[in-house]
Amino acid sequence: MSSTLKSQIQQFYDASSGLWEQVWGEHMHHGYYGPTGKEKKERRQAQIDLIEEMLNWAEVSNLGTTPKPCPKILDVGCGIGGSSLYLAQKFNTQATGITLSPVQASRATQRAQEAGLGTEVQFQVADALEMPFADHSFDLVWSMESGEHMPDKEKFLQECYRVLKPGGTFLMATWCHRPITPATGELTADEKRHLEEIYRVYCLPYVISLPEYEAIAQSLPLQNIRTADWSDAVAPFWDIVINSAFDPKVIVGLFQSGWSTIQAALSLGLMSRGYRSGLIRFGLLCGNK
């Protein structure tokens, strides 16, 4: 990962993570609002529901009951430890989280200690394209909305595959653009401009379609590959985030967090409009080694 992009991502999350936690809590990802996105629920519960729905979809709900000694989980792009701690507690096992943000790693470590999981759950600053782990280290490699930040999608999946144990599961959710098919055609100039604005605001190099991720997974080669498009289920999230931005304490927090966070808040509509137009998609992929 280029030093410039690394620095941009680090600074973005160093600046914004504290405000996000204050307003939304420890889970820094979409929520799940039912298959059609019509279910009404408390926003943090929707985020927890997304984790549970993904686990059920990937059929990894028995991770903690398998005969394997001490199953280990890797959370790639761990934020402030929301998924890492949730999964470690759910499966009564060990978890490791990596992030480019020292602020996130420090806060995640603090949260693990507060939860009494300081020895079971560890966090560190690391590049997902050059992970500091041996081959075959983890039973579950989990990536919740971090793939969009990766400047080399193939290298990212290769690294996740490398550190996965034989028989282990890789499970990811990531931002994608719509599939390019003979029926839909190539991305239009307007669509490309829309994506470029999202890239600029959220420190993304580029996104790809879910079929492109599937092709990379097949080349690894992952086994039992499955994909799903949950765009309808998560799309309401962005309008709810927009509404929360009008809270006075959020407005104060935005100014304290700096320009990159303010710019991201002012641009929330980019994602909402992207979902409505069908340009932005929420893709899931899982497979076994």
TrEMBL record:
Residues 136-144 are annotated as: SAM motif II. Residues 74-171 form the Methyltransferase type domain. Pfam families: Methyltransf_11. Belongs to the class I-like SAM-binding methyltransferase superfamily. gTMT family. Signal peptide: none annotated. Transmembrane segments: none annotated. One of its GO terms (molecular function) is S-adenosylmethionine-dependent methyltransferase activity. This is Methylase involved in ubiquinone/menaquinone biosynthesis. CDD domains: AdoMet_MTases (cd02440). InterPro entries: Erg6_SMT_methyltransf (IPR050447), Methyltransf_11 (IPR013216), PiNMT-like (IPR025774), SAM-dependent_MTases_sf (IPR029063). The lineage of its organism: Bacteria, Bacillati, Cyanobacteriota, Cyanophyceae, Coleofasciculales. Residues 73-82 are annotated as: SAM motif I. Residues 163-172 are annotated as: SAM motif III. One of its GO terms (biological process) is methylation.
